[in-house]
Amino acid sequence: MLTPDFTRYSLALFHEGRIIFCSEKEGLRPLVECIRACRGRFSGCELHDRAIGLAAAKIVVTSGMIDRVITRRASSRAVAFLKQYSVPLTADEVVPILLNREKTAPCLMEQKAEATEDPEMFFHEISAFFS
């Protein structure tokens, strides 16, 4: 397990100890871009992401290439979902749900993830959303 350096990136994907994708962008978009760029080319990867909610957890599972997730903050739904699929998660903090930037409601992507049961279908919907 590598030590995350969130001063250098908001998201980084590691394969055999080397960064194969990283981004400083916020939100779910960098994870979608990462999966688009790396899916089918790697396996056994470790993902560092500042925050993992249910939406990100579903994308992680769909990727088929991420074996471990390390984050600052995870939602309890993400923890349970990743556990269901045997993907180890290490989080500095676990919160009930990830909130929007204004902290007034659940994050839009969390709402979308909750509304879509199938992780693969969710990835396609989110991928189209970011196109």
Topology at a glance:
Blueprint: E1 11-15, E2 18-23, H1 29-38, E3 45-52, H2 54-63, E4 66-75, H3 76-84, E5 89-95, H4 108-115, H5 119-129
Parallel strand pairs: 3-4, 4-5
Antiparallel strand pairs: 1-2, 1-3
Helix pairs in contact: 2-3, 2-5
Structure description:
The chain is α/β, with parallel strands linked by helices and 131 residues long. It has one domain (11-119): Hypothetical protein TM1506 (Cytidine Deaminase, domain 2, 3-Layer(aba) Sandwich). Helices cover 37% and strands 27% of the residues. A five-stranded mixed sheet has the order 2-1-3-4-5. The chain is globular.
Task: Write a short abstract of this structure.
The chain has 131 residues and is α/β, with parallel strands linked by helices.
**Mean pLDDT over all positions:** 94
Q: Residue share in helices?
A: 25-40%
| Overall number of structural domains | 1
Q: Give the helices and strands as they follow along the chain.
A: EEHEHEHEHH
Q: Radius of gyration over alpha carbons?
A: 13 Å
Largest sheet: 5 strands, mixed
CATH topology: Cytidine Deaminase, domain 2
CATH superfamily: Hypothetical protein TM1506
